Amino acid sequence: MEKLKKILAAFLLSSVLVLSACSEEETIYDEIKDKGVLTVATSGTLIAASYYDDADQLTGFDVEVAREVANRLDLDVAFEIMSVDGMLPAVETGRVDLAANDFSVTENRKEAFTFSEPYKYSYSTMVVRESDYSGIYALEDLEGKINGGGATTISSEIARHFGAEVETYGNASNEAYLRDVSIGRTDVVVNDYYLIKFGVAAFPDFDIMMHPDLKFHPTEQALVMKKDETELEAAVNEALEAMRDDGTLSEIAIEFYGEDASEPTEAEVEIIEGLDI
After folding, report:
1. Band of the pLDDT at 173, cuts 50, 70, 90?
2. Distance CA 110, CA 19 (A)
3. What is the C-alpha separation between 87 and 93, in angstroms, rounded?
4. How far apart are CA 129 and CA 139, in angstroms?
5. pLDDT of 10 higher than 80
6. Residue 143 pLDDT more than 90?
7. 107: Cα within 13 Å, side-chain hemisphere
8. What are the distances in angstroms from CA 43 to CA 62, 99, 144, 168, 183?
9. Measuring CA to CA, how many Å separate 1 from each of 4, 8, 12, 17, 135?
10. Alpha-carbon distance 93 to 95, whole Å?
11. Which terminus of the chain has fewer CB atoms gathered within 10 Å of its CB, N or C?
């Protein structure tokens, strides 16, 4: 009996030590604070969310939001430039701490990732040829058309939902996507209203326009981080809340979009039924 008591005591002690070790295991946020650097994935090719300006400096709405979050957490920020299709895997594997590239919050994505509170509110529309609307006057007209987009983006999923073929690109610039619509290599680019607004304005010589009639799929954009990183999530959200309260978030939005995209849109937007995203 005495021997059994000793074995049991040793077992309980080892269990306590294991639990103690687990409780002291560093979180991702602990590691970030130790390094003093927040690593953020972005594209550098997405006007006006993430792009290089005339001085070849990385900037844009999402870039500057991420910069300000890092600043308020007393961290430096290091941006990793990659294609949109590579960003979520990079977050999942821990190659980067966050992704900041106009990512929409969806139910499917929330199963695999943690999102910050939204810092941008928008909806989807599309780029079509100005000369003939690319033959698209309703969402159903997307059937059989060619949409230019990333393989894993929500915009491409919407295009596929209505029967479009998706021509996928790597980390291509806005110019590549929009030129292809203009010359007829593709027919349409489904994308975010604000991104289309500035993308189209940047290439006035192209035969393209934002579709004047179609507004659909309201969206909320947020920073993406690894699933269940509650400490990092709380810190990021605290920074975003402070930015919203003191007007910084609105100022950044107006600087890059000419409108306060940090507030919910008042546009009448069609809800797409049966869209599994």
Report:
1. confident
2. 29
3. 10
4. 15
5. no
6. yes
7. 3
8. 10, 10, 29, 15, 25
9. 5, 11, 17, 24, 86
10. 6
11. N
Give dist(CA 158, CA 162) in Å, integer: 7
* Cis-peptide into 48, omega within 30 deg: yes
Residue 230, classified by CB atoms within 10 Å of its CB into exposed (0-12), middle (13-18) or buried (19+), is exposed
Residue 80 to residue 86: CA distance in whole angstroms: 11
